[in-house]
Design goal:
- The structure is a single chain.
- With about 750 residues, the protein is an alpha+beta fold.
- The chain is about 20% helix and about 30% strand.
- Strands 1-2-3-4-6-5 form a six-stranded antiparallel beta sheet.
- A hairpin with a 2-residue loop joins strand 18 and strand 19.
- Helix 3 runs antiparallel to helix 5 and helix 7 runs antiparallel to helix 8.
- It is elongated.
């Protein structure tokens, strides 16, 4: 199997658009008689799959099926073939964007697709599907076509706002050449129907379900069955539990919720029986509201969303680079041939001989010169041709000519021609140098990130196999470049690329923030009640959670004492916060004579009290005030009653209250035990979006839930709410130490 050539049949490959698991997609130019040219999309099989019979058969199935589909909402396929072991399918080139790029740009710009436009696009998807589902062969027998892979990436929106379906590549038809293995799952997991996810037989209602998911995503920006893994997505699809779109977008009315609910019914018998019925319901709703969106309105909205142009810049540039373009930049071999023709004045560039000549393609070692054959005075032979055979060319200098060129030797030239041939070669060399150094180059983007290894998405399309640091050639214009890496917040940059200039994104500009979960803080005050932002949490100790960049006020209150306030932020250095209280000294208790050392007059002898812990370094708090760290000592009256607290991060605190004279040996000794922690897994099923708060802490908005939320061992209150869905539930969970997290499922 050889590499994909630059020419496939009558198609010239201009630019690779994408690469998937099965094949590559190219922008190409078709050529025909009389100077006919047409931009097309070529889809080829990847070289390593071309020898696999199953893939070849499936690839041919796609062309065999889709070539029969002629409809305004389906991209037409008009040719298929094979050359040198490379299989390809040619389809119409539709300048525009796929729906995945549109949704991605909406997310980047923090915008939403208007409800009426989303529904209009959905109705057009349904219209195209209904045509394919009802398609018959010439005998009137149904082709049994099911798309099986409806998703935003397979929906194109043209520059004119027309909606077209692509990629019936894994469609199942009754007359297909290959039979899919029973139970084998194909397609994108989170867009599947429940029956497809379970490997059961499919009918057109499966496509209706996938279309419903696509409409749901357009309306809300959210995929209803997307899990953190493929297996989780499959499980969510099989369970088919989802939130009404209105819980995610308040602009969506109940009538639209009802349409989506029927399209996404788990039981196919409760679903729309056909794509046509889905289209009719959508249009009836739009008409009932007085809305009648058009393709023109879709195009206008997308033009505002993509100010750089609805057609991708690299494809627009490539589209104008074919040899038939008036503004075409000459290749080196084309330029060389033109210069030869200019010098050799006896050759008419418009003659039949010149028109029928075939230039030899460029090689890796030099430029093959395409001289028209059988021109008078030039024998049709290459015998003896070499660099040293050309008069006037120094030994060791490469002419860049290959033996495939039909150039005569110096000896075979007509008399008087040898001198001007040397001049000719010199002129050609100068011309090539001027052309080479003056031709317009694409801009260069040097892309770095911290950390490295981030995936690169350019104008909504992922650069397959490219991670930072990377150097990319990009066409002139403004590009939206996104960096994504697991465990980090994505970053999107708008970058201006200029021809022949190097634009560098350094590691600091491409720095990605690590996704940070909530932090838990322990609030401690002796025998005090803890408040957070005026809300009572309970008696000390209490735990509060903060999100990144969040700030809250905490307060300790105790009767007879001055309250203690503290402003706590997510970035606070310690996980344990002590709230000291100002309390009056307790009444003096008279002790027996044995407890006295001196000062019999006032019955209050002075005692030096020592504090030791294992491990050392524990904070010593006396009556709520930190006085030092162990080992430490202080002087107190023997009859004084002390509230002592010994604490160290990562260890359980020790508290004791008694008279100084009661400590034997005048020493306070303690062994600290490691403080154990646990975790909570929270799964949001119905609704799948909500807010979570633990132990009265701040609410955190999540979708699907969170995993491994670290909390101290013990009992906790977990509150889940979704205001739009009118849900507010509190769960009590007893967290145990260890790696296994306690689980809460909200459904």
């Amino acid at each position: 199997m050889t590499d994909t050539p630059q020419l496939l049949g009558r198609y010239e490959l201009l630019n690779r658009i994408a690469k998937g698991g099965m094949g590559e997609i190219f922008l190409a130019k078709a050529r025909g008689a009389g100077g006919f040219e047409k931009n097309v999309i070529l889809k080829t099989i990847l070289p390593h799959l071309a020898d696999e019979e199953e893939f070849i058969t499936k690839f041919l199935d796609e062309g065999r099926i889709v070539v029969q589909l002629i409809h305004g909402n389906i991209v037409p396929v008009f040719d298929m073939g094979e050359q040198d072991g490379v299989y390809f399918i040619a389809m119409e080139y539709v300048p525009g964007r796929d729906l995945r790029e549109v949704i991605k740009r909406l997310d980047v710009d923090r915008k939403r697709l208007p409800v009426d436009l989303a529904l209009f696009i959905g109705s057009e998807i349904a219209k195209g599907l209904d045509y394919a589902h009802r398609k018959t062969d010439e005998t009137g027998e149904s082709l049994g076509i099911i798309h099986r892979d409806i998703s935003p990436s397979n929906v194109l929106i043209s520059s004119d706002g027309e909606v077209k379906l692509i990629d019936f590549g894994i469609a199942r038809a009754a007359g297909r050449l290959s039979k899919t293995v029973s139970g084998r799952i194909q397609g994108k997991f989170c867009y599947m129907s429940p029956e497809q996810a379970s490997g059961r037989p499919l009918d057109p209602r499966s496509d209706v379900f996938s279309a419903g998911i696509t409409i749901y995503e357009m309306l809300t920006g959210f995929r209803p069955f997307e899990g953190s893994t493929d297996l989780e997505s499959l499980d969510l699809v099989r369970r088919c539990e989802f939130d009404p779109p209105s819980t995610l977008n308040a602009e969506i009315p109940e009538e639209v919720d009802a349409i989506i609910a029927r399209a996404l019914a788990k039981d196919p018998d409760e679903r729309y029986p056909s794509a046509e019925k889905l289209q009719v319901d959508i249009l009836q709703y739009l008409y009932s509201t007085g809305s009648s969106p058009t393709s023109g309105e879709v195009a206008k909205f997308l033009q505002s969303l993509f100010p750089e142009g609805l057609e991708r810049q690299e494809l627009k540039s490539a589209r104008g680079s074919g040899s038939g373009s008036k503004n075409r930049k000459l290749s080196l071999d084309d330029a060389l041939e033109l210069e030869l023709e200019k010098v050799m004045g006896d050759i008419d560039p418009h003659s039949t001989t010149a028109m029928n000549s075939t230039p030899t393609p460029a090689t890796r070692t030099g430029i093959a010169v395409g001289i028209p054959r059988n021109v008078e005075g030039l024998p049709d032979t290459t015998e003896g041709l070499s660099d040293r055979n050309i008069e006037g060319l120094p030994d060791g200098t490469s002419s860049g000519l290959t033996p495939t060129s039909k150039m005569p030797t110096a000896r075979e030239l007509p008399r008087g021609s040898r001198g001007w041939l040397a001049i000719l070669v010199g002129l050609v060399g100068v011309t090539l140098a001027v052309i080479y150094f003056s031709r317009t180059q694409p801009g260069v983007l040097v892309l770095n990130s911290t950390p490295s290894g981030a995936r690169v998405i350019i104008d909504g399309a992922e650069a397959i196999g490219i991670v930072t640091p990377a150097t990319l050639d990009l066409p002139e214009g403004v590009h939206v470049v996104s960096l994504e890496k697991d465990g980090f917040e994505g970053k999107t940059l708008r970058i201006q690329i200029r021809p022949e200039e190097v634009t560098t994104v350094d590691a600091q500009a491409g720095a990605l923030e690590q996704i940070r979960g909530p932090r838990s803080f322990s609030l401690i005050a002796t025998d005090a009640q803890i408040f957070r932002d005026q809300q009572a949490l309970g008696m000390s100790p209490q735990t509060v959670s903060l999100l990144p960049n969040q700030v809250t006020n905490v307060r300790a209150v105790k009767e007879g004492c001055t309250s203690s306030n503290y402003t706590l932020s997510y970035e606070h250095g310690e996980d344990t916060i002590y709230l000291p209280l100002e309390c009056p000294e307790p009444a003096v208790v008279v002790e027996p004579e044995v407890d006295r050392v001196t000062d019999h007059a006032n019955n209050a002898a002075t005692v030096t009290l020592g504090f030791e812990t294992d491990p050392s370094g524990a904070r010593v708090l006396i009556d709520g005030k930190q006085v030092g760290t162990t080992p430490w000592s202080g002087s107190y009256r023997g009859d004084q009653v002390l509230s002592v607290r010994l604490e160290k991060d990562g260890y359980a605190p020790i508290e004791v209250r008694q008279k100084v004279s009661a400590w034997k040996g005048r020493k306070v000794s303690a062994t600290l035990s490691p403080n154990e922690s646990g975790c909570i897994d929270i799964s949001l099923v119905n609704p799948a979006v909500g807010e979570i708060a633990i132990d009265g802490g701040p609410f955190r908005e999540v979708s699907r839930g969170v995993r491994g939320w670290s909390v101290p061992v013990g009992k906790h209150d977990v509150r889940l709410r979704n205001v739009t869905a009118n849900r507010d539930d509190t769960f009590k969970v007893d967290v145990q130490a260890g790696k296994a997290c306690s689980l809460i499922v909200w459904e």
